[in-house]
Amino acid sequence: MTVGPKTNCNRLALPQVTLCAATSVNVKATMCALEVSLAQIDFAACKLFTDALVKASHPNISIVPIERLGSSAAYSEFLLSQMVDHVETSHCLVAQWDGHVIDAGRWRPEFLDYDYIGASWPQFDDGKDVGNGGFSLRSRRLMEACREPQFLRSHPEDVAIGRENRNWLEEVGLRFAPRVVADLFSTERGGDLQVSFGYHGSWLMPQVIGVDAFWPLYGTLDDRGTVRHDFAAILKQIARGPGGWRRALRLIADQATHGMVGR
User: Fold this and answer.
1) Taking CA 25 as the corner, what is the angle to CA 33 and CA 208, rounded to the nearest 5 degrees?
2) Which residues, including other chains, have CB under 8 Å from residue 147's CB and lie 6 or more apart?
3) What pTM does this model have?
4) DSSP annotation of 149
5) Rounded Cα gap, residues 6 and 103, in angstroms
6) Among candidate residues 81, 82, 65, 76, the one with its CA nearest the CA of residue 27
7) How many angstroms separate the CA atoms of 186 and 93, rounded?
8) Over 90: is that where the pLDDT of 138 sits?
9) Dihedral sign of CA atoms 169, 171, 176, 109 in order
10) Average of pLDDT values for 98-106?
11) Is 210 left (phi over 0), alpha (psi -120 to 50) or beta?
12) With respect to CATH, is domain 12-200 assigned 3.90.550.10?
């Protein structure tokens, strides 16, 4: 069953939340992801941190100039040490080009009771399974804690928060959502697109927005290597339907010629 992000539902107001994204690549696709979320929700602010010389595609998106993020590790460092300086609200909703709100009607006020929520990680069974940072809700308190000397910053930033430093973060009073709440908040490797508020993962995009919408969005990517990890799942989905074989050949050619570069 195809799931599509809603655009005509009653608008949700989240004055406690700033919607944020940071990138030096796939900027157009990132703005599209922000637009999908803005179509359903009134945030306190929406900020795109980038070195790209671009004009905001939506009147509510503020472009915040930063130094180039030349690698995924640089992205992690920016989120852990710098983004908090630009967030004035109690919480920040982090998005990337391949993740956004699915249905604002699935928002739960209790999400704001937690300092960190991201899609669950089903590969872990030790209780440190929340979670993915690509579509995540984090409090200012948590973001400030990530700059403390006791916090051991590392890459990727969501593993640094959700696993490597989770014990210390909880010791100083920060709350992680339990897995059942994380699955209602977002879908990635775990969760269910039919019930979650949002999602993260390029392999899920053909289901969420539809193949015909995903394909032109994919065409805007300047870093097509970002879909390489889930190439097989995407290939299978886009190959279906009229003209699917042409798209499949294009995807195969792209992945053969485009190297991985940093987010």
Assistant:
1) 30
2) 80, 81, 84
3) 0.92
4) T
5) 6
6) 65
7) 12
8) yes
9) negative
10) 98
11) left
12) yes
Residues 36-56: tens digit of each pLDDT:
999 999 999 999 999 999 999
Integer CA distances (angstroms), 169 to 17, 151, 154, in order: 21, 8, 15
Give me the chain's average pLDDT, please: 93
**Contact of 81 with 153, CB cutoff 8 Å:** yes
Nearest-angstrom CA–CA distance, 157 and 240: 35
Alpha helices in 173-243 (DSSP H): 179-185, 205-209, 211-219, 231-238
Q: What is the pLDDT of residue 261?
A: 36
What does the DSSP 8-state code read for residue 229? G
pLDDT per residue as tens digits for the range 145-204: 999 999 999 999 999 999 999 999 999 999 999 999 999 999 999 999 999 999 999 999
Per-domain residue ranges for the chain?
Answer: 12-200, 206-257
Q: Report the run of H or E that residue 26 belongs to, with start and end.
A: none
Q: How far apart, in whole angstroms, are the C-alpha atoms of residue 5 and residue 113?
A: 25
- Of the chain, the end-to-end C-alpha distance in Å amounts to 31
Report DSSP state, residue 107.
Answer: -
Q: 203 with 197: CB under 8 angstroms? A: no
* Residue 256 tokens, joined: 């053969």
Sign of CA dihedral 184, 16, 6, 239: negative
